[in-house]
Automatic annotation (TrEMBL):
Gene3D superfamilies: Outer membrane efflux proteins (OEP). Keywords: Cell outer membrane, Membrane, Transmembrane, Transmembrane beta strand, Transport. Coiled coil: none annotated. Signal peptide: none annotated. Belongs to the outer membrane factor (OMF) (TC 1.B.17) family. The keyword Membrane applies. InterPro entries: OMP_efflux (IPR003423), TolC-like (IPR051906). This is Membrane protein.
Length: 483
């Protein structure tokens, strides 16, 4: 009896523990759901961004069109079904046959003699010997085919153009990914920067609040004048305003990042701002940019299409050779069907002599397009060189600014400590303490901005060189001096 009572209790306890564990795991998952690393955020953008998905569909569409162009070498075979209705049956009488003959008039007496010999008039004989060639209603079905053997290179040109359009769509996608990556880095680390600024503002507010409390005590004991305490109050109120403003800036930055990641709640970055001790030489970035930038590759794809257009226009000057054939699947039982063959094959040769397509003008237009693309490529390479050099210099400037402010940070922290101690001892004013706190906040904010400028410039470098994945490598090898 006891065993039957213990068993349900054990089951109930195990079930309760399992439910509690599941709830705890769900709560932990919900707690961690808001944090995301930059690499994971980037994969989410690649998977969910509507603009990139549309570009991927464009690539797939171009791929299908390229596959369709590969079928241009195959023959065309079609089944046709024809129905004709004429004003009357097609007939042929002896008189009509004689009229069509060169010596038909000489045979008319023989026809008259034949009619008289059979006791018939010429008209009766003509009607008796009239043949029905075809009915006025005709139904027929046939298989027809054509196989191009030589088109002057126009088929190859069409296939090359389709391949070029697919490459263009792919490079357009790469360019879109580059833009989205730089936007993600800007939004992602914008949240990190906003949090850093908010933390700094909160620290400043806490320091000034403590200073205000000390000022109240000193004023009550008559150690400082009333204006000193008012200065501490004003500084604290301004710090509160700056902290609230920093909080609003953080909310705006989080909203931008959440929208980009299609997240319903606020997204908290798990990665921090960083910098690297060293970067590869600028020439390495320059070489990568002029060879791998999506814009350069996009123009190369356009040039391939222009060359294919030139080849196609040249093909208009060449003959077209092909095989053709036909097989009669169904035909009516009449004399016309008996006279026509059941199947036939042949070879056709078409030579363009005079046409109205303007092939010479189109050929010159294709050549002009090639020259235009070459000029655009040269100009883009020059622009990329300037862009890479500017971004590289910006990373160097950001590193120099961050490291140069290290001594200022140490000075600001020590100044805050000394000013608070001196104020408590009556050796400095409230304004000195406020200035020290604001100086410390300014140095921390400026250093955070330097890091933010560094990661954005580095993302621009990686995007310009067509290698956004290198940004994550630099992130893994970041300097240990950032704090």
């Amino acid at each position: 009896m006891i065993r039957w009572l213990v068993y349900p209790v054990v089951v109930l306890a195990a079930t309760t523990l399992w439910v509690i564990g599941m709830v705890a795991c769900a709560a932990a998952a919900e707690t961690d759901a808001g944090e995301i690393g930059l690499a994971s955020a980037w994969q989410q953008v690649l998977a969910d961004n509507d603009g990139l998905q549309a570009m991927k569909e464009e690539v797939r569409e171009a791929g299908f069109r390229r596959d369709a162009a590969a079928d241009l070498y195959w023959p065309e075979i079609g089944l046709s079904l024809d129905y004709l209705y004429a004003d009357s049956d097609v007939t042929l009488s002896p008189s009509e046959l004689l009229e069509s003959m060169a010596g038909g008039a000489q045979l008319v007496p023989y026809v008259s003699s034949l009619a008289a010999a059979n006791g018939m008039t010429v008209a009766q004989l003509d009607r008796a010997l009239t043949s029905r060639i075809a009915d006025r209603q005709q139904i027929s079905s046939s298989l027809r085919g054509f196989w191009p053997l030589y088109t002057g290179g126009r088929i190859e040109a069409a296939q090359e153009a389709a391949q070029g359009r697919m490459q263009e769509a792919d490079k357009r996608l790469k360019n879109g990914e580059r833009e989205q990556f730089e936007t993600l880095v800007r939004h992602y680390f914008g949240v990190v920067l906003a949090k850093t600024v908010l933390d700094t503002r909160q620290e400043t507010e806490a320091g000034l609040r403590q200073h205000r409390e000390h000022a109240l005590l000193l004023e009550q004991h008559g150690q400082i004048p009333h204006v000193e305490r008012m200065q501490s109050e004003a500084a604290l109120d301004k710090a509160v305003v700056e902290r609230k403003k920093a909080l609003r800036d953080l909310e705006i930055a989080e909203a931008a990042l959440s929208t980009m990641l299609k997240s319903e709640g606020a997204v908290s970055p798990a990665d921090a701002l960083f910098l690297n001790d060293t970067l590869p030489p600028m020439q390495e970035f320059l070489d990568l940019a002029v060879n791998n930038h999506p814009g350069i590759l996009l123009l190369a794809a356009k040039r391939e299409q222009a060359q294919a257009a030139e080849k196609a226009e040249k093909g208009r000057y060449h003959p077209t050779i092909g095989m053709f054939g036909s097989y009669q699947v169904y035909e009516q039982d009449d004399l016309a069907a008996e006279l026509l063959p059941d199947w036939l094959v042949g070879i056709s040769l078409q030579v363009p002599l005079v046409e109205r397509s303007g092939r010479s003008g189109l050929l010159n237009a294709a050549r002009s397009a090639i020259r235009r693309i070459d000029l655009l490529t040269a100009q883009l390479k020059n622009d990329l060189s300037v862009l890479v050099e500017r971004s590289y210099r910006q990373t160097e400037q950001a590193v120099e600014e961050y490291r140069g402010l290290g001594s200022s940070l140490a000075l600001a922290e020590e100044t805050v400590r000394l000013r608070n101690t001196s104020f408590d001892q009556g050796m400095s004013t409230s304004l000195d303490v406020v200035d020290a706190e604001l100086f410390l906040a300014g140095v921390k904010t400026q250093r955070a901005l330097a890091l933010y400028h560094y990661v954005n410039a580095l993302a621009g470098l990686c995007g310009t060189t067509g290698t956004p994945e290198r940004f994550f490598s630099y992130q893994k090898t970041q300097s240990n001096e950032v704090r």
